[in-house]
């Protein structure tokens, strides 16, 4: 384990705590709105789902952040005099039980986030056929995730070397590929539908960009691609990108939930209304209306010339 890897691990842990604070803020804002007893927002049937879903996201990311912090403390401080140094400690204890628990938390977090993103894709498109391929990939990620946990948690297993890398590369290729597909589907759909929403031009532009970045979970996909590339080439900075990826696995879905709870997120009704508005915009004017406009224009032309 090089010094660059250790520096990346340390910096990644610091970003974990920063983004964990962001998640705590988003979670608090979401729960305040969901538990609002003053009637400032209309209760929805999905409120209980969002309460449970948001709490699970927070619980799983808490486990991951705590595990990374504890392992860093054990490696650099508690066992600073370990024979062979921190590199030897990592090699000997990479499969310690709580590291396996942290990896399990990140895999379950992935499954929750990906499942929710598939659901949002269906909401934006309002068509079950569009999510057939994402659902097939989702099942494959579940299988590969189990194999990854087994290989990295087995005695003498190591998340960053050996068989775990092969399973891990397959798993992350599937789940990040799923992220990219769903992100592109949502991004393109929102870009198309948002043109039908009649709001002031400047506000419309801001709303469109915010919807695209948040609703499509763009940071989640970008961080995932960066992590996958660095993991595949076994770069020493892969652990840093892993930190960003796992944290955005939690933060991005929570941002979407907050928008939905606030009434600003995309819904099936909003999709249907936007499609109807676009269809009306694309309907050509009736022929008699065009003839009437032409006759009026022809009648007004001579009088205007005479007046001149």
From TrEMBL:
Coiled coil: none annotated. Residues 297-308 have a biased composition (Polar residues). The chain crosses the membrane at residues 18-36, 48-71, 96-118, 130-151, 171-192, 212-233, 239-261. Keywords: Membrane, Transmembrane, Transmembrane helix. Residues 285-308 are annotated as: Disordered. The keyword Transmembrane applies. It comes from the Eukaryota. This is Fungal pheromone STE3G-protein-coupled receptor. It comes from Wolfiporia cocos (strain MD-104).
